[in-house]
C-alpha cells in the first residue's frame, strides 16, 4: 500500500551518490518526476534502502534517472532490498533497456530548421545519385542485350506492354475525354464574353497536343504503373526472390527491370496519342453541343494546327516513360523485408514519379518556347 510521504532524492556529500527515500509510487508520480528531472547529471551511485514503498511507476523513474543497465546492477548489488522489490527493479530495468532511449522532443528553432533543411538536401542528393547510378545500370544492361539479342525477354516484354499499356487505355481515354470537355466548356464560357467562342477549338487543340495529352497520360502511368512495379519487385525482395536470382548467376535488372522499362517506353507514346484523340473528342463534343460549331469547322481548325505542336508533346513521352519505370523499379529494390517498407516505397515511387514528370515537363515547355518550337 502506498504511504503518505512522497519520495525524495538526497545527494550525499561526495556529490555523486543519491539516496532515494519515501514512497516511489504512482500516487506521487508528478512530484517524483520533477525531482528526477531536476538532477542535472546522472549519478554514479544510487542508494535504494530508504525507499518505503515502490511500484512500477517509481521503478520506471529510477530507470530513466540512471539507465536500465545501471539500475539492474544497483538492484543486484543491494542485498538489503526485499526480494520482491529487487525483482521489480530488475524487471523494469530490463524492459527499459529493451525499449531503448526515447526520441528527443521536436524543436522548431532557427538552428533546428536549418538542420532539417540540410538533412533534406543531403537525402535528396543521395537519392538523385542513386537514381543516376540505377539509370546507368539499366542502360548498360540494355547495351549488353542489344549486342546479344538472344538475351531479350520478348514474352515478358509483351506481357508488360499489355498490363501497362493496353489495360490502361480505358482510364486514360476517359480522363482525357473529361478534361478535354472541361477545358472546352471553360474556354467557351470565357471566350464567349469577347465574341471569340470559335477559338475554343484552338484552345483545346494546342493544350492537348503540347501538354495535356502526354502529361495526363504520364501522371496516370506514374500512379498506376510505377506503384505496381514497386509493389511487385518489393515483394520479390521481401521474399528473397531477387537474392535467389543472384545466387543462380542471373541479373535481376535484366530479368525484372529491363522488360518493364522497355514496355513503358513503347506504350506511353501510344497512350499519349490516344489521350490526344480522346481530349480532342471531348472538346469537340462541347464545341458541337454548347458553342454550335459544326463538325466540318472543328476538323478544319484541327487540321490547321502545325505539326510541330504535336511533336513537341509526343517527343517528351519516351523520357517520361523511362523515368517513371526506372523510379518504380528502383523503389522496389530499396524496399525492405516488411509489408510496411513495401507500402512506404510504393508511395514514394508514385510521389517521385509525378514530381519528376511535372518538373521535366515544365523544363521542356520552357525550352521549346525559347527555341520557337
Task: Give a summary of the structure in a few sentences.
The protein has helices at 29-37, 56-66, 68-76, 83-99, 110-147, 154-164, 169-192, 200-238, 241-247, 252-289, 295-303, 307-314, 317-334, 339-370; strands spanning 8-11, 17-24, 45-54.
Give structural notes.
With 373 residues, the chain is mainly α. The protein folds into 2 domains: 8-99, 2-Layer Sandwich (Transcription Regulator spoIIAA); 131-370, no CATH class. It is 72% helix and 6% strand. A 3-stranded mixed β-sheet has the order 1-2-3, with helices on one face. Helix 1 (29-37) packs parallel to helix 2 and helix 3 packs antiparallel against helix 4.
| H/E element order | EEHEHHHHHHHHHHHHH
Beta-strand segment tally: 3
- The backbone outline, from C-alpha atoms, is elongated
Total helix count?
Answer: 14
β-sheet strand percentage: 5-15%
Q: What structural class is derived from the secondary structure elements? A: mainly alpha
User: What topology, given as strand order, has the largest sheet?
Assistant: 1-2-3
Helix content: over 70%
Using only C-alpha atoms, the radius of gyration works out to 33 Å
> Could you tell me how far the N terminus lies from the C terminus, measured between alpha carbons in angstroms?
86 Å
Q: How many strands, what sense, and barrel or not for the largest sheet?
A: 3 strands, mixed
Task: Name the assembly state.
Answer: single chain
Write the layout of secondary structure elements.
Blueprint: E1 8-11, E2 17-24, H1 29-37, E3 45-54, H2 56-66, H3 68-76, H4 83-99, H5 110-147, H6 154-164, H7 169-192, H8 200-238, H9 241-247, H10 252-289, H11 295-303, H12 307-314, H13 317-334, H14 339-370
Parallel strand pairs: 2-3
Antiparallel strand pairs: 1-2
Helix pairs in contact: 1-2, 2-3, 2-4, 3-4, 5-10, 6-10, 7-8, 7-10, 8-10, 8-12, 8-13, 8-14, 10-13, 13-14
Pfam family, one: MlaE
Organism: Vreelandella halophila
Keywords: Cell inner membrane, Cell membrane, Membrane, Transmembrane, Transmembrane helix
Amino acid at each position: 500500500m502506498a504511504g503518505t510521504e512522497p519520495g525524495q532524492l538526497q545527494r550525499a556529500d561526495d556529490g555523486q551518490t543519491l539516496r532515494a527515500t519515501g514512497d516511489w509510487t504512482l500516487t506521487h508520480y508528478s512530484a517524483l518526476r520533477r525531482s528526477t528531472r531536476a538532477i542535472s547529471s546522472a549519478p554514479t551511485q544510487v542508494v535504494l534502502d530508504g525507499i518505503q514503498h515502490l511500484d512500477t511507476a517509481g521503478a520506471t523513474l529510477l530507470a530513466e534517472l540512471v539507465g536500465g543497465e545501471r539500475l539492474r546492477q544497483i538492484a543486484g548489488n543491494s542485498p538489503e532490498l526485499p526480494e520482491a522489490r529487487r525483482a521489480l527493479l530488475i524487471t523494469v530495468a530490463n524492459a527499459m533497456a529493451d525499449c531503448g532511449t526515447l526520441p528527443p522532443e521536436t524543436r522548431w528553432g532557427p538552428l533546428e530548421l536549418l538542420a532539417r533543411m540540410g538533412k533534406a538536401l543531403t537525402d535528396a542528393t543521395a537519392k538523385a545519385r542513386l537514381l543516376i547510378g540505377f539509370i546507368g545500370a539499366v542502360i548498360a544492361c540494355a547495351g549488353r542485350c542489344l549486342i546479344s539479342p538472344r538475351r531479350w525477354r520478348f514474352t515478358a516484354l509483351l506481357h508488360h506492354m499489355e498490363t501497362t499499356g493496353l489495360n490502361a487505355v480505358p482510364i486514360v481515354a476517359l480522363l482525357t475525354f473529361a478534361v478535354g470537355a472541361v477545358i472546352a466548356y471553360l474556354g467557351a464560357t470565357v471566350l464567349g464574353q469577347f465574341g471569340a467562342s470559335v477559338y475554343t477549338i484552338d484552345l483545346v487543340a494546342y493544350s492537348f497536343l503540347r501538354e495535356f495529352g502526354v502529361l495526363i497520360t504520364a501522371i496516370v502511368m506514374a500512379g498506376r504503373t510505377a506503384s505496381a512495379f514497386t509493389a511487385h519487385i518489393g515483394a520479390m525482395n521481401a521474399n528473397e526472390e531477387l537474392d535467389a536470382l543472384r545466387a543462380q548467376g542471373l541479373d535481376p535488372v535484366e530479368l525484372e527491370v529491363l522488360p518493364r522499362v522497355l514496355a513503358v517506353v513503347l506504350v506511353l507514346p501510344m497512350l499519349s496519342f490516344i489521350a490526344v484523340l480522346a481530349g480532342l473528342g471531348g472538346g469537340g463534343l462541347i464545341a458541337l453541343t454548347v458553342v454550335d460549331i459544326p463538325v466540318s469547322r472543328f476538323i478544319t481548325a484541327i487540321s490547321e494546327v502545325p505539326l510541330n505542336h504535336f511533336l513537341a508533346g509526343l517527343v517528351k513521352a519516351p523520357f517520361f516513360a523511362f523515368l517513371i519505370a526506372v523510379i518504380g523499379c528502383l523503389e522496389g529494390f530499396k524496399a525492405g523485408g516488411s509489408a510496411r517498407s513495401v507500402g512506404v516505397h510504393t508511395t514514394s515511387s508514385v510521389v517521385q514519379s509525378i514530381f519528376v514528370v511535372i518538373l521535366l515537363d515544365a523544363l521542356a515547355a520552357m525550352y521549346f518556347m525559347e527555341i520557337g518550337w
